[in-house]
Amino acid sequence: MFQLFLVFVLAHLTADFIFQRNKTIELKRTNIHKGLWRHVICHFSVTLVVVLSYFVLSTDWSIGLVIKSLIAVVVITLIHYFIDWFKESMKRKSDRVWVSGSLFIFDQLLHLLSIFLIMQLLGLVSYSIEQWKVDSVQFLFEGIDFPNVTKLLIILNLLLIATEGAGYLLGIVLKNLGPNLSLNKGSYSISDEKTEIKTVLNEKGEEVNEVTRIKTEQFYKDSPKNIGRYIGIIERLLIIIFIVQGFPHGLPFLIAIKSLTRFKQFENKQFSEYYLIGSLSSSVIAVVIGYIILRVL
Questions:
Q1: Residue 200 falls within a domain, yes or no?
Q2: What mean pLDDT value characterizes the chain?
Q3: Per-residue confidence at 287, pLDDT binned at 50, 70, 90?
């Protein structure tokens, strides 16, 4: 029942990355328990709908399997609460970027592990460590011929990770790398300094050089909130499509188009570095997941 495990993972990623609103994230910071309960109720609802939809569309199910799956939904939801509580408690002790990034990755891995272990205990999946090792090596070097439904579920999960999941992670990692705080207030500034040298006559009639430094700072209205995140999602989707379709040389063209929209801001060195780190990180994630999808297909 590997497909059922993928369904639970799909429900988890959908609830965590698509249906979790910024208001819920902020509420977890101000009132941790109220925010977590709101989040896990949403998680329970999404998982229940996704799992039941799978059984409705599937022909291979039984009453016993459905009951076990419903028990798994309840237990996974409760464990999700405690995992998130641990993560939020740790985040309050340190606001460092590397701590937040590590907690995000650890949190997601812990959720996936808890889903697998609960399903294993309930007999919904049967997968040994040895079998996992063999299948992993075969997948990397030879490939595995998955059924079409399994392929679809794997690809949907990978696309969610590449788009929404990567967006959350990059948002955490790049949080403090912006050129100035005004970027978070709907505007950005570009500073410029130039030196002018003029030859003038002094009181004695002698020619002397007069040096003048002129510093200017221009303020521009930045893009609407979250527009950069959506651009990143579309960018990673296009990169994955390029990789899957055997068109990797389309990547420079995509980056060039994206750079044109921020051309003026490249005059700010700090923004240029911020943009470069973000674009390269986003591209690497998309390329890796694109090649994984190729192995699945």
A1: yes
A2: 78
A3: confident
